[in-house]
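Researcher: Hi, I'm a grad student and pretty new to this. My advisor asked me to get structures for two proteins we've been looking at. I'm not sure of the right format, so I'll just paste the first sequence and hope you can take it from there.
Model: That works fine. Here's the first sequence with its structure tokens right after it:
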Amino acid sequence: MMTTTLVVHAELRARFAVALAEMYGAEVPAYTTLVEVSRAVNADVAAALRERGAEVDRYGSLERVTAERHGAIRVGSAREPEQVGRVFAAFGMHPVGFYDLRDASASSVPVVSTAFRPVDPAELAANPFRVFTSVLAVDDARFFDAPTRERLERFVEERHLFSEELLDLADRAAAEGGLPAAEADELLRLATDAFRLSTEPVDRAWYSHLERISAVAADVGGVPATHINHLTPRVLDIDELYRRMSERGITMIDEVQGPPAWEGPDVLLRQTSFRALAEERTFREADGSISTGALRVRFGEVEQRGIALTAAGRDLYDRLVAEVDARRAAGDARARVDVARDVWREHLPRTEADLVLAGLACGEVRLVGGAALPGREADGSLSLRALVDAGAVVVDPVVYEDFLPRSAAGIFQSNLTDSGTKDEGAGGAEYDAERLSAILGRPVLDPIALATDQMQRSLDALSAQLQTPVTL
């Protein structure tokens, strides 16, 4: 009997990322420049690390980092998020993390978000493609009055982002772990086309009405289809990338979002972008005539990833961010990143291993051959700190694979031409991971739990190797 060879999730995902990058590069040429500069920075940083005898692959192989991308899309209410989940499941991508952007910046950003990505470390190593997916909070009265909400709901209900053929293929790929070659090709074609910028005319009056509320809302509910809003390469030195892009005449947003650069370990995620570019679009006017104009909604983002934090580490990080805000509000006139650097120096350990040993970050542990083991604790266990101090064990960082709501909102805000409106006197709508899970029809996974479990599996493996419990 002949056996059909499947194109499995990891390969589908890698091909999907490439197809979207080719499409987006054709639509937004400055993205191609961003990728070129990212690759050059990564090669230069890797060469410098090798010269110093430092590990190049500490946060993933250079090949993985250079190929790595995350995309971003925005969808409306009702069936669209559920269908998005079905499409991404075809590529082995699951919703991870709940991000509420509605109050994360001063601008009007009426969305809640998650990120679809692989969750198994082997799948991440094969291809870590992610898509940050925002859902319009149509029922939040702070942004949308009743007539606007009703029209938004009708508008979204009447459009169809994904064909039945695509959804059927996606369901098969998700259930079977992949597809035969011909069907895989068709899945990739249909899925890529679903995120292509639409050429259908935009209703100018309706778009403008939503844009006065929020440019993000207009990009979700004022256009006939969804599209890739930005596509993000990963870089090993985001400050150098920022400098080189600026030298090329690309207008960047005002600052790098997220933690500061400092002499200690990179934590979580740093992001920046070039400013949204004017793109020609077709409009339908009130009298039915067709005209041309421009919209500024799409931009090029870049990211630098650091070590994942535990729940305790994330609590500390949030307190440090609040401390930076408090110092600036109290009169420290320096740039946010300069204040943050001082705060980081005051409160964070200076090495990845110390972060992990303090219970603040997640690491994978590995035994060093030939090193002498330390003595056991009173209960017969081995202390991880003692193993590290003795040089018997090395701690490698678990890479942070997820996002930060304040940084995401900061990127959105920096690329808006207007801050929009928000009626703080009106009642907001309640959203959390449980509600978003119900909307998607699949559980939104906890990123901290995923990283912590990865660390625990590593500790368990070390304990089994040493035939002795190893404790933090």
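Researcher: Oh nice, that was easy. Here's the second one.
Model: And its structure:
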Amino acid sequence: MKAIGYNTTGAAEVLEALEIDRPTPGPGDLLVEVKGISVNPVDVKLRALSAPDGGPKVLGFDAAGVVVDLGTEVTDFAIGDAVFYAGDVTRAGTNATFHAVDARIVGRKPETLDFVEAASLPLTAITAWEMLFDAFRLTEGAGEGQALLVIGGAGGVGSILIQLAKTLTGLTVIATASRPETQDWVRKMGADHVVDHRGDLVAQLADLNLTPSYVAALTATDMHWPAIIEAIAPRGQIALIDDPETLDMKAAKPKALSVHWEFMFTRSMFQTEDMTAQRDLLNRVAQMIDAGRLQSTLTEHAGVINVENLRAAHLRQESGRVIGKQVLGGW
């Protein structure tokens, strides 16, 4: 089957077209014919840092497609089902014509989105959902009178996090964005207020007379850390997804702050007992999309799935200027 992968770490040019064996689904797996994929920062990080082990490495996590085969223990899917999911960092990726995935982390594709649009959602929706309800331990409808600061609101995670917070909680959402087009985008996603992370965050929040109880630090956390510590409410909650080299954790002590790392692959990586939580939340997201309560975060269609287009999509990710999500579809 067709796939795109790499044999050595490096720049986007190391990605190459491959012909590899079609996978056989394990007992609890679905075999999915991949119709659409999206590109995430994790793809770029792994391509640069994660060396292949004994053969080419195929990346890709977000996917939408059609079930073409089932493992012997799968009972809640059927051949022909349209699905979407974010995969497992410990297994081969979705940049292939067929992909085997654990059925417990797969959701039903939104009926109102095509496969390419649907592929833009899973990884970021899971990440955002887990930040709100696992890391922050919010319950649906909670948060009235409190504020959430989303640093890097125009990216993929920020775009869906703003929407989920506005739709499922009572939080006031403050998003950071530095360019006119990104500021317009986060307002479109539903942000109540917009501040510029290139400026003085503390002063801008003071001007709004808002003290966030929750901070989603989605980018450059090491750079924004002092402002986060100063601006957040006592006993506030911070969740981050990036990889800062160092953070001054002692600075969080006077306010008794809680700091959480969010990593959406944890459940599948460690085969946790609650792995089906990701399936369930993806089904909720699909229902909300179909009901018009959430909107797609897709902004860039990078063309069909081939090595040239995937290289270009990786380069766009590296630019740090992607708004929302970029997708590819069809082989």
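Researcher: Is there anything I should tell my advisor about the second?
Model: You could mention this: The chain has a mean pLDDT of 97.
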